[in-house]
Fold these 2 entries.
Entry 1:
Amino acid sequence: MNAKQKTRIILDQLAEMFPDAHCELVHQNPFELTIAVLLSAQCTDETVNKVTATLFQKYKRPEDYLAVPLDELEQDIRRIGLFRSKASNIQKLCRILIDKYDGEVPNTYEGLIELPGVGRKTANVVMSIAFGVPAIAVDTHVDRVSKRLALAKPDDTVLQVEQKLMKLVPREEWTMTHHRLIFFGRYHCKAQNPQCPLCPLLELCKEGKQRMKNPVKPKQRGKLA
């Protein structure tokens, strides 16, 4: 079985497991999506959605984020990890949107990655979801699953993982594959305690088969005195 054939089996199985995989960040437009993805770095989508439920009621446009002191915005997103740097980046991002893009989120990859706080992953998410351009954004779930299934090497960088997935996956399936890999990693192939005994991809997963041969025993608690 070559790499393309293996990838096809994986994609078909992911489609069967998660046919309705989608972006779980709640948003109404490209601007809200950009802010939500920026906030999601090193933070769960669940926490981001709790914060943006009120944040997006208070701040509708880039101008709104610049109309308040930085410390007020920091307090509004305090539950988010790295909230101080993210608040600063949001205000800088909004200033660029107003000065250079008439308050709109740019619909090009080059325009997005120049925005403070917007890296390659965020740009790919916005391009694919907001503007319908096929892309594979590599977050922690996509990175972990790709390496466990040997679609990428264990020591590959995020960029290398993205490039390998782009070669293996048909372009028209990039965006959906991104969502399904995230769902697979978030709900099945978790970082801790992956569901290897129930995994339909076990035969294609070297790490999973190794885990089954040498299961990790739960730590025993010490006896109380």
Note: The mean pLDDT is 92.
Entry 2:
Amino acid sequence: MALITSVAGFATFGVAARAVALTIQRRPVVSGFAGYGAAAVALGGVGYFVHNVEQRQNELLKERKEVLLANRERRLAQDA
């Protein structure tokens, strides 16, 4: 998943969560634009963090796969 997709998706979720919170409180949804910005920035940061975690995990998986394939090749060479 691309970085912009992660950040924008989480930021959108933050804005939606803020709108739902205001609706539950029976306050006008268009009040407090600073709250929307804070929610977007906070959850956009979470999206950035999740993207970096996903990248690190993909690298670790690729390295582990290479090790497993090398072990398989070595085992097949020994058996033959």
Note: The chain has a mean pLDDT of 95.
